[in-house]
Amino acid sequence: MPFMPTQISLYEEMSALSARMVAAARAQDWDALVSLERSVAALRLALVNDDDNGGLSEPERESKTRLIQRILDDDAEVRRHTEPWMEQLRQFLGSAARKRQVERAYGAGR
Predict the structure, then answer these.
(1) For 11-28, what is the mean pLDDT?
(2) CB within 8 A of 51, min separation 6: which ones?
(3) d(Cα 23, Cα 89) in Å, to the nearest integer?
(4) Residue 110 within any structural domain of the chain
(5) How far apart are CA 105 and CA 43, in angstroms?
(6) Rounded to an integer, what is the distance from CA 10 to the centroid of its chain?
(7) What range does the domain containing 73 cover?
(8) Cβ neighbours of residue 25 under 8 Å, at least 6 residues apart?
(9) How many domains does the chain have?
(10) How would residue 108 be classed by pLDDT, with cut points 50, 70 and 90?
(11) Any idea what the CATH number is for the domain that residue 57 is in?
């Protein structure tokens, strides 16, 4: 019979991955960050399909709450590092798009 991870073990794994995401964001390792986010998304999907608090004991619910808080804290830290980069990217792409519009409007490159 295949091993079925418990809800708590899935949250623990997600928390470990979110901590690695923080390290990747701090290092500006965007490729690693994207890869880790994909792994977290797969775990999130597994949790959505099996998020039944009724089967958890009180200590497990408390552990789940702590893990979720840690994941949320890590997410905020990742955003703190990625949002400035994303804003620069938006500005760059926006200025490139404006440049193309001006070139099209005025026939640049003729």
Answers:
(1) 96
(2) 7
(3) 21
(4) no
(5) 48
(6) 16
(7) 7-81
(8) 33, 77, 78, 80, 81, 82
(9) 1
(10) low
(11) 1.20.58.380
Burial label, 67 (beta-carbon count in 10 A; 0-12, 13-18, 19+) = buried
Q: How many residues does the chain have?
A: 110
Q: How far apart are CA 64 and CA 99, in angstroms?
A: 50
Let me know if residue 18 belongs to a domain: yes
44, part of any domain? yes
Predicted confidence band at 51 (pLDDT cuts at 50, 70, 90)? Answer: low
Q: What sign does the CA torsion over 40, 43, 49, 55 have?
A: negative
pLDDT in tens, 37-50: 999 999 999 888 77
- Tokens describing residue 3: 């091993």
Q: Is the distance from CB of 74 to CB of 21 less than 8 angstroms?
A: yes
Q: How far apart are CA 73 and CA 108, in angstroms?
A: 49
Cβ proximity of 38 and 15 under 8 Å: no
Residue 93 in any domain: the answer is: no
Residue at token pair 């990747």 = 24
